[in-house]
UniProtKB/TrEMBL annotation:
It comes from the Eukaryota. One of its GO terms (cellular component) is cytoplasm. Transmembrane segments: none annotated. This is PITH domain-containing protein. InterPro entries: Galactose-bd-like_sf (IPR008979), PITH_dom (IPR010400), PITH_dom_sf (IPR037047), Thioredoxin-like_sf (IPR036249), Thioredoxin_domain (IPR013766). It comes from Neurospora tetraspora. Residues 129-322 form the PITH domain. The keyword Disulfide bond applies. Gene3D superfamilies: Glutaredoxin, PITH domain. Belongs to the thioredoxin family. Keywords: Disulfide bond.
Length: 324
């Protein structure tokens, strides 16, 4: 039996749905638009096979002719528009009848439902946050293409790219449980180079870095937190260390002890005008805050807005970004 979509009757009902439900996928439609009505049936069909429908997932439809305030709040200009929300925050949006993008949204929906069901079964949350999100922005870390990301000068006895973007609480904050090292350390010196291509064009507002080195003052080899960082946008591949040293960065960052909160996380505001419409980010850790020869990073989170999706495996060539 096809799972019916919930018809939203008021802005208050919409807000209550977002607050009470882990995952909401919503179709914004008009009864006079045939494509909108067909899209609702397609969405209902996809949702029926998802285990967890009704517990962690709700499918909703919003009549934009009657609920103009909601239409305006989400800048709905094309019908149908499909939006995916998790924990009340927008994580994907497809404007129009775009089969490729809708297929991507459905796959993202399936992963979100699976993750939520796992959380329910374990009684724990996998969406650990090292710091609060800036108001009006969302976590877009899931837009990083992990299989095409590259990390240079990493100690292979520690974790790799995937642990950096894990949503699980770092083991250093959980009593060190587990045998796997769920963090990254540099290898031959204190520098690290990380290349992150994205699944869609992003607008980045904040970079959050969590670093939890051990606090044993007697250990001269203990890794350090990053101190000097350079960021580069829209690179088709990773940089070399010499190139990164010489190249002018999109933004230079200098961290001090006061920038780290009790969770070991630094929230770094980005020069927003320079981080519009970007398809990749290179993070270069130049040095650490101390005398060790190693730098440690436990988690990375990207905060901002996601935009139009691009073809997977292809980086568009973008011209120079304007200055501030």
């Amino acid at each position: 039996m096809v799972s019916p979509a919930v018809e939203i009757k008021s802005p208050a009902e919409w807000s209550s749905l977002l607050d009470a439900t882990n995952i909401v996928v919503a179709q914004f439609y008009s009864p006079s638009n045939a494509a909108s009505l067909e899209a609702i049936h397609v969405l209902e069909h996809h949702s029926q096979d998802l285990e967890g429908h009704g517990t962690v997932l709700k499918v909703a439809k919003v009549n934009v002719d009657e609920l103009k305030a909601i239409k305006s709040a989400y800048s709905i200009t094309t019908l149908p528009t499909t939006m995916l929300f998790q924990n009340g925050k927008e994580i994907d949006k497809v404007a129009g009848d775009n089969p490729r993008r809708l297929a991507q949204l459905v796959e993202k929906l399936k992963r979100a439902v699976d993750s939520a069901k796992t959380e329910q079964a374990s009684g724990s949350s996998s969406s650990w946050k090292g710091a609060a999100l800036p108001r009006g922005y969302v976590d877009v870390t899931d837009q990083v293409e992990l299989n095409r990301s590259e990390l240079l000068n990493v100690d292979t006895e520690t974790g790799g790219v995937r642990v950096l973007f894990s949503s699980e609480k770092p083991s250093a904050l959980s009593g060190g449980k587990g045998t796997a090292k769920d963090w990254v350390e540099s290898d031959t010196d204190e520098q690290l180079l990380l290349f992150m291509p994205f699944q869609s064009m992003l607008k980045l507002h904040t970079l959050q870095i969590t670093s939890l080195p051990p606090t044993d003052d007697d250990d001269d080899e203990a890794p350090m937190r990053p101190k000097t960082i350079k960021l580069f946008v829209n690179k088709p591949h990773n940089l070399g260390f010499d190139e990164a040293e010489d190249l002018q960065a999109t933004q230079d960052i200098e961290l001090s002890e006061s920038d780290w909160n009790k969770e070991g996380t630094a929230s770094i505001p980005l020069r927003y005008v320079r981080f519009q419409n970007i398809n990749s980010l290179v993070l270069f850790v130049v040095n650490g805050d101390g005398d060790s020869e190693k730098v440690r990073i436990d988690r990375l989170r990207l905060i901002g807005e996601s935009g139009a999706a691009r073809d997977m495996g292809k980086l568009e060539k973008i011209g120079d970004l304007p200055g501030e």
